[in-house]
Specification:
35% helix; BioA; transferase; globular; PyrdxlP-dep_Trfase_major; Aminotrans_3_PPA_site; aminotransferase; 4-stranded mixed sheet; 14 helices; 422 residues; binds pyridoxal-5'-phosphate; 16 strands; alpha/beta; 7-stranded mixed sheet
């Protein structure tokens, strides 16, 4: 009998039978029947320590003996308190308050509600819409779908059901662009703000790397400029670092490339090293303190059942400790060197007639093709080489676990190139 599991992003008519994973270790997972696959995607970018990391597994087991769960409404516990302190310590200066939730999408919903309520409490209730960017992806819940790219995004079918927000063009200037090139992107952002700032609560962006919307990479100067524009137009700046957080762009947070502090920042995916679902929405004093007041409207009315789950907080603390003690930023720099050498500097690949662009940032690399159908069959091809790749649209990418050894990294890049340079 077919399995009753309904898989995500799958066409039911054409989907292949999903292989069954029975375990994993380091950058690899194991399939029933003995096959082993090197995971080039670290399970939707979250398993940054790879599979079965002994310290993370032990942390969950230890915490399970003490306390698996308790509500955060009116109560607190050691793992939540400690994790909040750690997140304040490692994130850009000025982010001082932490609201926990259970997934990246919900973390973004929290950010958007916070921004709207912030303006309401300051006497500007008409500032209740978001400004997002084309090519953005912020999650699959309704509120998040409404701020994903309205054309290329996965959610256009729902447009009649979703609230309307504003969109600025996706930034075009690449990571190493100069100020003149970035100025064009900022001018486009300014023009939307000039017209609509009266109703805009917050500018949302995935800083430096628009991930699920096509791995579009941009300049740190864009972040600096966006910060200035937000201040000028009394708009909160929200960084969705769900994908970019915890080293993916080469620094701990994408914001660190620009030395910018957003008003609100959202973390998830890498937060627990992928071992449990969790998220954190951080806010500055300025945002937080607007909620201090006497009216009933001053309470922030949000509270996911599993927010601050002790197991998730405990494993997140362990993940951070491993990240720092084992110098993951150095490991990421090593992966970056291989990605640049093997993909960015490969002339045959870059000049291949089907390839539109090759981009690398931190531990992320993408081969963008001109026509998405060129990627049909690449996942099966990779599997035959022992590699798990999962391209989407026109993008063949890797976001490996940071523990991936150099030879395995070259196996991944070799497989990606091999599809074009057979
Ligand atoms: C994955 C992702 C989300 C959604 O997170 P979920 O945990 O899947 O809800 C939001 N924003 C960005 C940038 C993401 O990559």
């Amino acid at each position: 009998m077919a399995s009753p599991v309904w898989h995500p992003y799958a066409h039911l008519l054409t989907q292949a039978t999903a292989p069954k994973v029975v375990g994993g270790e380091g950058p690899r997972f194991f399939l029933e029947g003995g096959e082993t696959l090197l995971d080039a995607t670290c399970s939707w970018w979250c398993m940054i320590h790879g599979y079965s990391h002994p310290r993370l597994v032990a942390a969950i087991k230890e915490q399970a003996d003490i306390l698996c769960h308790v509500m955060l409404g009116g109560l607190t516990h050691e793992p939540a308190d400690r994790l909040a302190r750690e997140l304040v310590r490692i994130t850009p200066p000025g982010l001082e308050h932490v609201f926990f939730s259970d997934s990246g999408s919900v973390g973004m919903e929290v950010a958007m509600k916070m921004a709207v309520q912030y303006h309401h409490l300051r006497g500007k209730p008409e500032k209740h819409r978001m400004l997002s960017l084309m090519q953005a992806y912020h999650g699959d819940t309704s509120g998040c779908m409404a701020v994903c790219d309205p054309e290329e995004g996965m959610h256009s079918l729902f447009s009649g059901y979703l609230p309307r927000h504003h969109f600025a063009p996706a930034p075009q200037a690449p990571y190493d662009a100069g100020p003149d090139e970035v100025a064009r992107d900022l001018a486009a952002l300014r023009s939307v703000l000039e017209r609509h700032h009266g109703e805009i609560a917050a500018l949302l962006m995935e800083p430096l790397l628009q991930a699920a919307g096509g791995l579009n990479m941009t300049s740190p100067l864009y972040l600096t400029g966006a910060r200035q524009l937000c201040d000028e137009f009394d708009v909160l700046l929200v960084f969705d670092e769900v994908a970019t957080g915890f080293g993916r762009t080469g620094k701990l947070f994408a914001a660190d490339h620009a030395g910018v502090t957003p008003d609100i920042m959202v973390l998830s995916k890498g937060l627990t090293g992928g071992y449990l679902g969790h998220a954190a929405t951080l806010a500055t004093d300025r945002v937080h303190d607007a909620f201090i007041g006497e009216s009933p409207l001053h309470a922030f009315m949000h509270g996911p059942t599993f927010m601050g789950n002790p197991l998730a907080c405990r494993v997140a603390l362990e993940s951070l400790a491993v990240f720092e003690e084992e110098r993951y930023l150095d490991k990421i720099a090593g992966l970056n060197r291989v990605l640049r050498e093997e993909l960015l500097e490969d002339e045959a690949l870059r000049r291949h007639p089907d390839v539109d662009d090759v981009r690398v940032l931190g531990a992320t690399a993408v081969i963008e093709v001109k026509d998405g159908s060129r990627l049909q069959g690449v996942a099966a091809f990779a599997r035959r080489q022992g590699v798990w790749l999962r391209p989407f649209g026109r993008w063949l990418y890797t976001m490996p676990a940071y523990v991936t050894p150099e030879v395995d990294m070259r196996q991944i890049t070799g497989t990606m190139k091999g599809w074009f340079l057979k």
